[in-house]
Structures are given as structure tokens and as C-alpha cells.
Amino acid sequence: MAFQKLINRSDMIGCVLCHNPPCTDVCTANIDCGVLLRSIWFENEEYASMTLPEKNPCVQCAAPCEKACVINKACGPSQVKIKELITRLYKVKEQPHDIASDLKIDFNCLKSDICGIPIENPFLLSSSVVASTYDMCARAFEAGWAGICFKTICNFPIHECSPRFSALEGDNNSFIGFKNIEQLSDHSVEENMQIFRELKKNYPGKFILASIMGQNEDEWGILAKKCQDAGADAIELNFSCPNMADDGLGSDIGQIPELVTKFTRAAKSACSIPVIAKLTPNVANMSPAAEAAKAGGADGIAAINTIKSITGVNRHTFVSEPSVHGKSALGGYSGAAVKPIALRFIAELGLNKKIEGLHITGMGGIENWTDAAEFILLGSGSLQVTTSVMKYGYRIIDDLKSGLALYMNQKGFTSVSEMKGLGLDSFFMSTDSLERDTIIFPKFNSKKCIGCGRCMVSCADGGHQALELTADRKIRLNPKKCVGCHLCILVCPQKAITSSGIRI
Fold first, then answer.
1. Which of 31, 223, 360, 370 would you call most buried, defined as having the most Cβ atoms within 10 angstroms of its Cβ?
2. Which of 241, 271, 455, 482 is catalytic?
3. How many Å apart are CA 436 and CA 265, to the nearest integer?
4. Digit-coded pLDDT (tens) for 175-212
């Protein structure tokens, strides 16, 4: 029986996902309220429900968790209804599960590999500030990340500007789209090599992917060899940083297949460990660059890097964000908002027979385990994350691993390789191949419908005028006008409309 989702992220509005949450500290039943709330936020409520005690301690509880909540103290009682949310988790627990609630989940299914090198799970930090010092990488390893792609190493000086981030906000005052104008590692090459040596000594089982950027063939080769000698397990060639586009660097390389081949070959010839080309999404198609990387000897492809962007313009100063002394520039866009674009490129790579056999490490908008599963189903064998870590911290690895492992156990997958690419067979890069002779009507749940008329407005002004709001605020469908576009399903705030599954 399919799991029925009973709690949504919208039910969490108000919770700020505290560090060392006070709701946990005061729980008289010793329940980690903070972890449960975080699991709900990251779409992992089924696993969270399985960790609950057999009996609900909230029934007779005076909810000291809510009194201790930092938001409830600041904005008034019951802003975050922790007691109600945990009680609703018990309703999730009562549902039939494909796995018994004694948590006998096999986490071995998460094992994967990068170009034949085993990794304990598919999750790595991507090349950015989140993996830029020994301490940060060590803490990530301790938290449970399988590896890191270290912030891009180069031979030229880096001097960052301030500020260098901006964002588009979504629910819970968190950002859904994130722009950065940050560049590469500002440590010397030798300082970074020492970090690699210490990480490999203290965490021999963790995967170190060394991101590098050279200015010519010699530099690409020299940096690759130095990283290998310092303990890196593989090399990632940064052909895609949108903030290093001058003088043939960064994304300029990824847009010119000849340069991709030349510099890939230079790095590959200088080292014996796997070489992965990180490609830019700032192109119409990624396949030419991917094929060029393979021609140069690449063992894998990393995609996507950030997208060139402007996140907004201040209406009073007329300067786009972030403003650096009254000036700004194009920057790299990331976060949940770019996931559909990232998946498009991952699918393109996964369907390209000319690069078959190359490892694909996917990234771009991965926040929770469901995102991770989608990347794997379209061909990614490993995954990289930055923006979500910048928002929520290394701790998100707990829900990434447990949510994905639970899903894989339920589906019978014993390894990442078994599910990799399973979503490609049903996907076309063009809509021309889709069936167009049947219509699937929407289905309306009268118990959930509150009569707001949002579906009617959208259908009237953005669809086919197939819905009517009656005098008693009920929705009536005109099947002669309905084309089965399902816009009404997407706009309903109550989730009261679903697909009927009926074809005509």
C-alpha cells in the first residue's frame, strides 16, 4: 500500500529549525522534537514516524516544548504547534508501511562508487565555501557525508568582495534561489595540499574530490598531479564557474568543446586517478562539451554548476544585488529553484549514448532525499550539495541518508547502481513523441474543497473555461470544455483536486 502523505512543509511555517533546539531540551518524554520537526521539513516524515515511542506521550502533555520554542516566545504562544505536529506523526506511524516500524533498515543500499572507487553513500559536499577548510571538511565527515569536492584550487591570487550573496525568498523566510559572486579558494596551493594530506590521514575512508582550475595546459596538469600526490581520490576540472569567466577561465571553457578536450587531456595525462569534467549549464546543450571531455579522457561528468543570473534590482538605488560599493555583476544562481534545469541536463547526459560509461555526479537544487532520488533515477551515480548546506548546515545528511535508504528498501533496491537511470526509459527530450489522443479529467474531493474558487479563476483566465463556481460555492466541471491540462490540480491551495486516472 502506498504511503499517504499526511503532513506537508506548509504545516511547519513558523519553525526556524533551531540549532540545539530548546523544544528538545525540555521534552519530558525525551523525544528529540527538533529532529522530528527537521525531518518533516525535509520530506522525511515517514522515517521520523518510525522512530517514535509506541505510545504518544503528547496526549496528556502540557507541551513545555511549545513554551520553550524561540518563535513562540517571540511571536506569541502556539505559533509552532509542536504537540500537534508530533501527534500527526503518530497518524503517519499508524499507516501500513512496507517496512516494519522496528527500524530494521538496511543502510548498505546507499553504497555507491565514483569511477569505481567505493563510497559509503552517494552524498558529497560540492566545491564551494562549505568544503574549503580542514575543520569544515572534518565536521562534514563526522556528520556522515561520504566525501567532499574541495573548493576550487588555482595558482592565481583570489581576493573576494563583500557582500557576495543575494537570494530570492520562499516559504519560512528561507531562500529558494541563491546567487553568489564568490570565486575560488583563497588559500595557497600548498596550504590546500596540506589539508588534503591531513584529511586523508584522519579520514582514510572518505572520498576527496579535488576541484582545480588552470590557466593553461601546464597548470591543469601540475595541479592535477599535486592533488593526487596529496591524497585526492579524483580530480574535478572546473570548466564552469560563472564568476571566473575572464581570460578563458571558468564557464568560458565549458562553452568551447575544443578547450574541454585539450585541458581534460592535460590533466588526465598528468595523473593516474579519475578525472571528472564539471560542465556549465550556460549552454543550449551540454552534450558537445561532455563528448569533448570524453575525447580528452575524462572518467566522468559533473553537472550542473551555477547559472549566470541577476536576482533583482534595488528599486531605490537602481543597483542589482548584491551591491558592492554601488556596483554589481552577473553571478551564479543555485538552490531549489534550479533543480528542474539541473535535472534537464542530467537527463540529457544520461540519454547520450556517446558518453555511456562515464560517471555522472549530479547537483543543482538538491535539498532533501526526494530530490536525491530524482537525480539518481535520471542517471547520477553520486550527488553533490552546497546551497542546502549553507541554509541548514551539515546536519541535513541525516535526513538525506535515512529518507533515501527507507525509499530504496521499500522499492527493493540494494544499491544506488540498481536504481540509477531507471527514469530515463520513459523520458523524451522533445514533447513530439508524447501520446496526444486521450484526456484525463481532474477529480474533486468535496470534503477537502472550501469553495475558494481559485481553480475556477485559473481555468477561466489561464485554461479552458471548464469550471464553474455555483451559488453554494461548489465546483462544477464541464467535461465538454475540459482538456485535462490539470492546471486546477496545481493551483488548489487545499490539495482537493487530483487526477481521476480516467482516460477518454
1. 223
2. 241
3. 46
4. 888 887 777 767 899 999 999 999 999 999 999 999 99
